[in-house]
Design brief:
single chain; Aspartate Aminotransferase, domain 2; 5-stranded mixed β-sheet; 17 helices; Aspartate Aminotransferase, domain 1; alpha/beta; binds pyridoxal-5'-phosphate
């Protein structure tokens, strides 16, 4: 991007629409081109280098593709990162980062409650490679400090974490990690770049599932890692293009289209979620509503300091959650009973505490179990508040709950 352009792209909405995109040089097309070609006609002199892609010369779409590249540039501008690498899914991004950074003999500190598939690969697959993993509640700074070892290469945090909506103080954790010489990676999918910029708080890598708020429409899987060029150029060259979890240009194009309205959508997600959370909090059948934008959130002060937007995720608990889930799934008319989140459609799903603790989160200490019980107990409803009218969402919940 030219310096003049950079100086004019000050607002989030301008960046979301224009960053990374340029009218097509041949046709003048104003909207981004969708380039589905897997291969590109190359100059015999050019050779086969990944670096050539960084100068805008393409060879093969697993190495780099012009449509995917436009999305990567837009994401980097939104996150205020030097660069971005896109992946086929959030898990594609996460697994590539772990395989790239960790080798046998290394140690990593991972959030004890984080996206379930990440937890699952760090339970068996990664330790099976001779990499030691310590799971800690990263909201507990003393626990993070105590977990650090001389061979700790990576600290991996998710805030707010899925599904608990528990927060981690990123500036404080970054301080601990920096002193130890390890790298800090933050999954910021729930927060989004509109709320929190982990790189500005001292993180080395930011991860997003583009499937959620950034794509925003529930029709394209995608993922990204953002950070410094000196870290991500080797990650692309040595790991990402070899493991092959690259993003389809069609999905990149859809996600870019979704991103054009990203800041506007986040404002409505937040407004709607606050209204729905307030409604749930006063409903007699609901107990324990967790939303970072509510003063009742256990870490409300941290939420206000670290999140410029409280996003659209709420959790709540009910007596007999499992039976209530079956009832609600049958009665809700607008809100879909489905996994995933961050879409324009509202989604709700019941997460059974015992099942999750057995399959995903193997909590090892009394403190970890206590924190889980405080937030989730035997199970929680995870509600992703969409962009419908808040009054309609509240009416839908009311009729389903009161019936
Ligand atoms: C969904 C999600 C992921 C995984 O993303 P996929 O695109 O489904 O692979 C990772 N982290 C968080 C916090 C998520 O919500």
């Amino acid at each position: 991007m030219s310096d003049l352009k950079k100086s004019l792209f000050t607002g989030e909405q301008t960046k979301a629409i224009h960053a990374g995109e340029t009218p097509d040089a041949v046709s003048g097309a104003s909207a981004p081109n969708l380039v589905m070609s897997t291969t590109f006609v190359v100059d015999t002199e050019a050779g086969f280098s990944v670096e050539s892609m960084e100068d805008g010369a393409y060879v093969y779409s697993r190495w780099g593709n012009p449509t995917v590249h436009q999305l990567e540039e837009k994401l980097a501008v939104l996150e205020n990162a030097e660069t971005a690498v896109a992946f086929a899914s959030g898990m594609g991004a996460i697994s590539t980062l772990l395989f790239h950074l960790l080798k046998a003999g290394d140690h990593a500190v991972i959030s004890d409650v984080a996206y379930a598939a990440l937890s699952e690969i760090t339970n068996e697959m990664i330790p099976g490679l001779g990499i030691e993993i310590t799971k800690v509640n990263t909201s507990d700074l003393e626990a993070v400090r105590n977990a650090m070892r001389p061979n700790t290469r990576l600290v991996y945090v998710e805030t707010p974490c899925n599904p608990l909506l528990r927060l981690t103080d990123l500036a404080a954790v970054a301080g601990i990690v920096r002193r130890s010489g390890a790298k800090l990676a933050v999954d910021s999918t729930f927060a989004t770049p509109l709320a929190t910029r982990p790189l500005e708080l001292g993180a080395d890598f930011v991860i997003h599932s583009l499937t959620k708020y950034l794509g925003g429409h529930g029709d394209a899987l995608g993922g990204a890692i953002l950070g410094r060029k000196e870290d991500l150029a080797p990650l692309r060259r040595k790991t990402s293009i070899r493991l092959g979890g690259c993003l389809s240009p069609f999905n990149a194009w859809l996600i870019m289209r979704g991103l054009a309205t990203f800041p506007i959508r986040m404002r409505v997600h937040q407004e709607n979620a606050l209204q729905v959370a307030t409604f749930l909090e006063q409903h007699p059948k609901i107990r324990n509503v967790i939303y970072p934008g509510l003063p009742s959130h256990p870490q409300y002060e941290l939420a206000k300091r670290q999140m410029k937007n409280f996003s659209g995720m709420i959790t709540f608990r009910m007596e007999n959650g499992r039976e209530q889930a079956a009832r609600l799934a049958g009665k809700l008319q607008i809100i879909h009973y489905a996994v995933s989140l961050g879409h324009h459609r509202s989604l709700i799903f019941y997460l059974n505490g015992r099942d999750l603790l057995e399959t995903s989160f193997k909590l090892s200490t009394r403190e970890q179990q206590q924190s889980w019980d405080d937030y989730a107990g035997e199970g929680i409803f995870r509600l992703s508040v969409g962009l419908e009218d808040a009054t309609d969402l509240i009416s839908d919940l009311q009729q389903a709950l009161d019936d």
